[in-house]
Amino acid sequence: MKIGNLDLGPRPVMLAPMEDVTDPSFRLICKEQGADVTYTEFVSADALIRNVNSTLRKLRIDERERPTAIQIYGRDVSSMVEAAKIAEEARPDFLDINCGCPVKKVAGKGAGAGLLRDLPLMYSIVSAVVKAVNIPVTVKTRLGWDHDHRDIVQIAEQLQDCGIAALTIHGRTRSQMYTGQADWTLIGEVKRNPRMTIPIIGNGDITTPAQAIEAFDRYGVDGIMIGRASIGAPWIFAEVKAALAGVTTAITPTQKMAMLRRQIAENISNIDEYRGILHTRRHLAATPLLKGIPNFRDTRVAMLRADRAADLLSILDHIETDILPQLQTPQV
Questions:
Q1: SS3 sequence, 19-67?
Q2: CATH superfamily ID and name for 2-244
Q3: Tell me: the pLDDT tens digits for 44-103?
Q4: Which of 30, 99, 101, 162 is catalytic?
């Protein structure tokens, strides 16, 4: 699969852009675990052109994580064009336009999935950004605004005509948010459309290697994107890549814990102790490593309330010494 001249090889597996999740530390770990492409957190065009420091920091790319895309979002042509040019200066491998974020503070203001309610504006933004930069431009979007407007087959054709190099489709409407089950049938329909010549990347509810294989084999997509299933579990990329290659892999609980510890240490180093721990909490809360453990509630509560590194690491030491040895090593 290619995005412009960037060759990602057959059946690439990508890390989805996620706000407050895909920071540089997490992206690099996912890359080391086998992610073929990483994406930054999504970047507000308005904040970028106002030189907001917290937004500018999102443009930082570690050379070791490449290929990496910067994803931007906005609601008008001029600001998106200006933001795209600023983002291009950070030297991403390609630029992605967010036309799929469903949260109210984005979609409710007409950006992200909000563009699905104003398709002419979406096409104007995408066309203008494609013309404004010298790197490939891609789009990530959803099936449509709601169940009565699942127009992705037609939308995909129009976006291709705008000049994008690839299209990622999340198999839900904006109205669904993240509820229900992702519908891959329409993603497959887009891929089978003889008019489509650009790569189609599928996204939504890929949580196991078996589901990844099905996405390629049943729906014919060129690539897949994993989002929420990677939170607290960057090793999912190693598991999926092994399954796609037809081999087995075993990642021990100790190895998984080491990745979580590394995130804590790097986030503390990159931010500060308190905010670095807060930033890592969603990974600790979501990690499947610590799911289903009997009589774990009190330890879990203490882990998620700890706001000092010494306290948190002491709890993790207890988990690693007294609990992890009881867990079975998963086989893929």
A1: CCCCCHHHHHHHHHCCCCEEECCCEEHHHHHCCCHHHHHHHCCCHHHCC
A2: Aldolase class I (3.20.20.70)
A3: 999 999 999 989 999 999 999 999 999 999 999 999 999 999 999 999 999 999 999 999
A4: 101
